[in-house]
Design goal:
This protein has 433 residues and is α+β, with helices and mostly antiparallel strands. The protein folds into two domains: 47 residues; 257 residues, Beta-lactamase (3-Layer(aba) Sandwich), CATH 3.40.710. The chain contains ten helices and ten strands. The strands form three sheets. It has a six-stranded antiparallel β-sheet with strand order 7-8-9-1-2-10, sandwiched between helices. It has a two-stranded antiparallel sheet with strand order 3-4. A two-stranded antiparallel sheet has the order 5-6. A hairpin with a 2-residue loop joins strand 8 and strand 9. Helix 3 packs parallel to helix 5. The longest helix has 68 residues. The relative contact order is 0.12.
């Protein structure tokens, strides 16, 4: 069988040992190639990762170096600035800047204080407005009572026709301001509230114990006082003389409160002064709790006792001057002025009337202590528990009658003064004690 072409086999012709060495070398080369490539790849990856870390570290280091350089630069700059000598213009500019900043802070503080003051004044104004509204409401209620209430029929004194006129007022007393003689009383010993007429006692205590031209400060407690008020505010300063005039002309309860507290330290302490003065005057059926006459349990007087008080007040020149004042200008510390008009209508309707004091509460009714002078005659009329307009007509008629009275009055025939007199009215004379 013929042979094909001969093929040469690998390593043919080499010795067996040489073949073995060649095969071994090839095997080593084959098996070493894979791990070497993998190792090289691993080395390359590690090298790349190391390079990235180095780059990141370099970036961070660069940023840190930049920050450090910036801080160092700022520190160096800040350190360098003080060392640099400033020009007078620069120092002047810095001084002006500091002054402007200080002024700005002060202006802000002042603005805040002014705002707080404005808010307080607004609150006080609102309260004052509320008090005025309450006062107006009280006047409206009073008018309704006047329109609806049927007053009692006038009671006549059971003497001669030329004697005391008929009156509506429930409690009345007529006294001679010079001698202290009582010319007439109607239920004069009956205890009753007397409202603002007791401000005559407030005025008498102030005039007797305090310096009228001293400045006094309105207390915070004045905000608790009910109408009628003139409108003084806590912290304001007035002389006692000015407050006293407003008290006797316009009957401001806030003025009475201020006078009392600044005189005795409290309303209660001042009431003790009032009661001491009352005992000195012989007012045996009188007890005061406050300086203005607003309702208070256990506070009372009588027409008889109020005549004693009125006579003593009439003898004081300051009080006598104020009670006949028809109007006055009340000036506040801020420059505002309020015109105060006297509440006593008889002062303008009767030429002989020269004072004194009005009063009203629902408990006391309408009251008026009225004084008059005709020739050498000085007489005082006390009317309590009357009605409008009868309180004016009662007082005016009784005053005219008293000033024209020139006969010897009869001796008192009234019964015990501790109870209300049952007679309509009796002529009497008794010396004031």
């Amino acid at each position: 069988m013929p042979r094909g072409p001969e093929t040469t086999r690998p390593f043919e012709g080499h010795s067996l040992a040489l073949r073995f060495l060649i095969a071994f070398a090839l095997a080593v080369t084959f098996f070493a190639a894979g791990p070497v490539d993998a190792q090289e790849k691993k080395n390359e990856d590690e090298k790349a990762e190391s390079t990235e870390k180095k780059d990141d570290g370099k970036d961070e280091k660069t940023a840190g170096d930049d920050d450090a350089e910036s801080k160092d630069g700022e520190a160096a700059k800040g350190k360098a600035e003080p060392e640099k000598e400033k020009t007078p213009e620069e120092r002047h500019a810095e001084l002006l800047e500091r002054i402007a900043d200080s002024l700005s802070k002060r202006m802000r503080a002042v603005a805040e204080r002014e705002k707080a003051v404005s808010e307080r004044e607004k609150a006080l104004a609102e309260r004052e407005q509320a008090l005025k509204e309450r006062e107006a409401l009280q006047d409206a209620r009073e008018k309704i009572i006047e329109d609806r209430e049927d007053p009692p029929k006038p009671q006549a004194w059971n003497g001669s026709p030329s004697s005391a006129p008929k009156t509506v007022g429930k409690y009345i007393a007529v006294i001679d301001a010079n001698t202290g003689q009582y010319y007439y009383e109607k239920s004069g010993a009956t205890k009753t509230p007397v409202a603002s007429t007791q401000k005559l006692m407030t005025a008498l205590v102030i005039c007797s114990e305090d310096e009228l031209d001293d400045l006094v400060t309105v207390p915070k407690s004045v905000l608790q006082v009910e109408p009628t008020v003139v409108g003084v505010k806590p912290g304001q300063k007035f002389t006692r003389r000015q407050l006293l005039e407003g008290l006797l002309v316009r009957s401001g309860n806030d003025l009475a409160h201020t006078l009392a507290v600044t005189s005795a330290g409290s309303v209660e302490a001042f009431a003790e002064k009032m009661n001491t003065m009352a005992r000195t005057l012989g007012m045996k059926n009188t007890h005061f709790n406050n300086p203005h006459g607003l309702p208070s349990e256990g506070q009372y007087s009588t027409a008889h006792d109020m005549a004693l008080l009125a006579r003593r007040a009439y003898q004081h020149p300051v009080i006598r001057g104020f009670v006949k004042t028809r109007q006055c200008e009340f000036k506040f510390p801020d420059g505002n002025v309020r015109t105060l008009y006297n509440t006593n209508r008889v002062l303008t309707s009767n030429d002989y009337c020269n004072g004194m004091k009005t009063g009203f509460t629902y408990a006391s009714g309408h009251c008026l202590v009225c004084s008059g002078k005709k020739g050498d005659q000085d007489r005082i009329v006390v009317v309590i528990k009357s009605y409008k307009p009868y309180v004016w007509s009662d007082s005016e008629k009784m005053l005219d009658w008293a000033l024209d009275l020139d006969v010897e009055p009869a001796q008192d025939e009234d019964q015990d003064r501790g109870d209300e007199a049952k007679a309509d009215g009796k002529d009497l004379v008794s010396m004031a004690r």
